[in-house]
Design goal:
Blueprint lengths: L5 E5 L4 H15 L14 H8 L4 E7 L5 E8 L10 H7 L1 H5 L3 E9 L8 H15 L3 E3 L4 H7 L1 H9 L25
Parallel strand pairs: 4-5
Antiparallel strand pairs: 1-2, 2-3, 3-4
Protein name: N-acetyltransferase domain-containing protein
Organism: Serinibacter arcticus
């Protein structure tokens, strides 16, 4: 049996922390470049900006040797999330917004070498405790690849229901299309 993963919560990482976490992030999201229409992999500068933004909590999972292995980001200020419409969420979840409990999970990931270990689950359990203890309404998005092949959202909600009362709903869908044109003839 492996030791539980140590999970810390940080608001801002320094340059050393950003450098330690970039390879974990890059290894986790590079495969989505050909599996998801939306760009999931931030540039190193964009990643560093998020890691130093105090409006974004970082749940950081460390293995027994102190290596960075898994991460979840949670924006406690929706304006910190460039790809969402904060007004969409604020208009639908006014009570949570007014209480400061309307948050957004930016991404959650594990380095490929720790998949199948408890690292990801240990980190997610800390996230569920944090969301539950703060009575949070949380937004999140999942790529179609992760949702269909891994049943990611379904598994996450199922795990959350082990520790909390959770109401979950799909609130929007964005579908990407392509069309190839050729001259008639």
């Amino acid at each position: 049996m492996t030791a539980p993963t140590r999970v810390t919560i940080e608001r801002e990482l320094d340059d050393v922390g950003v450098a330690a976490w970039w390879p974990v992030y890059e290894a986790a999201f590079t495969p989505l470049a050909t599996r998801a229409a939306a760009r999931h992999l931030l540039s190193p500068d964009e990643f560093a900006e998020e890691m130093t933004d105090p409006r974004i909590m970082k749940l950081l999972a460390w293995d027994a040797d102190g290596n960075a292995v898994a991460m979840t980001t949670i924006a406690t200020d929706l304006d910190a999330v460039a790809w969402i419409s904060p007004d969409f969420y604020r208009s639908r979840y006014t009570d949570a917004h007014d209480r400061g409990a309307l948050w957004y999970v930016g991404y959650t990931l594990a380095h490929p070498t720790v998949r199948g270990t408890s690292a990801f689950a240990d980190m997610i359990d800390v996230m569920f405790d944090l969301l539950t203890s703060n009575g949070v309404t949380v937004g999140y998005d999942v790529s179609r690849f992760n949702d269909l092949s891994l049943k990611f959202a379904e598994h996450m909600v199922g795990r959350a229901r082990l520790v909390a009362e959770v109401d979950s709903a799909e609130v929007d869908v964005q579908t990407y299309y392509t069309a190839t044109f050729a001259a008639k003839g």
